[in-house]
Automatic annotation (TrEMBL):
It comes from Micromonospora pisi. InterPro entries: Knr4/Smi1-like_sf (IPR037883). This is SUKH superfamily protein. SUPFAM superfamilies: SMI1/KNR4-like. Pfam families: SUKH_6. It comes from the Bacteria.
Length: 279
């Protein structure tokens, strides 16, 4: 699938961040000892660094993200587990021959990899959820994979459905993320979502998604805080991303909203699991 198809689904941004130069592509390929697929180069050149729908992202070349260091750390981090549970690892890991090579990820913790071997432009994509050793193979490159996800054509076992909204790509910003885990709740999810939007408003819609028993509502506040309100059998939570300088204002606004929704606060944590906003 061509870049033209992807661009019809999601327009390229007016402001692109960290677009690699031809020399940076060449340096990355030299470090890896592998040529990168042409569609991946086109992807980073067209969009720069950022996120599709606040969820799916490709690793930038800048800052040693998509090169030998990141992938070597992946192999190092799984070596002991793989020795003990080899069935959890059906594929080799780069730099092993034909190993999985990271090229992107999602905020649910899915690792987006190529299964290397043969011509780079024919490498399939493997979605690897490292927390439960789940692998899904997609016979297509990075651009085709992203387009299929945006068109809601991927099985939900591969990735959750995108929110129902106009699709977008946002160039990278340095944002802090906090996950506020909740118990309880009054009324229906729809009623609580409407109230949360009022409490944090005015807001602009960024879509919603319903996947079996999982519900997500996405919106942005006037301060451009990015909020996701989620309900699933496993957890109820508010995820908020914001500039670090706004943290106290975000904390007050979100924590004040919790009892208004009939929730009690279980805990709040960063993406690394560090608990915050206690007391």
């Amino acid at each position: 699938m061509s870049m033209r198809k992807l661009i019809t689904l999601v327009a390229t941004p007016d402001r692109r961040i960290d677009v690699p130069s031809p020399q940076e592509f060449a340096t990355c390929e030299a470090e890896l000892g592998l040529a990168l697929p042409a569609d991946f180069k086109e992807l980073l050149s067209a969009y720069g660094v950022g996120r599709f729908l606040d969820y799916l992202f490709a690793y930038p070349l800048a800052g040693h993200d998509m090169n030998i260091r990141r992938n070597s750390l992946l192999l190092e981090g799984h070596s002991a587990s793989r020795d003990k549970f080899p069935a959890w690892y059906p594929y080799p890991l780069y730099p092993e021959a034909n190993g999985l090579l990271l090229w992107g990820g999602t905020y649910d913790g899915h690792s987006l990899c190529w299964l290397t071997g043969g011509e780079p432009d024919k490498w399939p994509v493997v979605v690897w959820h490292q927390r439960n050793s789940d692998y899904r193979l997609y016979q297509g490159g990075a651009v085709a994979f992203i387009a299929s996800w945006l068109e809601r054509k991927l099985p939900t076992r591969t990735l959750p459905r995108p929110p129902r909204a106009d699709d977008w790509f946002e160039p990278a910003r340095k944002l802090k993320q906090v996950y506020v885990y909740l118990d309880g709740g009054l009324g229906s999810f729809t009623e609580r979502t409407r109230l949360l939007r009022q409490l944090l408003g005015p807001v602009r819609d960024r879509g919603s998604s319903v996947d079996e028993s999982d519900r997500d509502d996405h919106f942005a506040t006037a301060q451009d805080w990015r909020v996701t309100y989620s309900e699933s059998p496993a957890a109820r939570l508010i995820r908020v991303a914001f500039p670090a300088v706004d943290e106290e204002a975000v904390r007050v606004a979100v924590i004040s909203a919790v009892p208004m929704l009939g929730h009690t606060l279980r805990h709040a944590q960063t993406v690394t699991g560090t608990q915050v906003w206690a007391g």
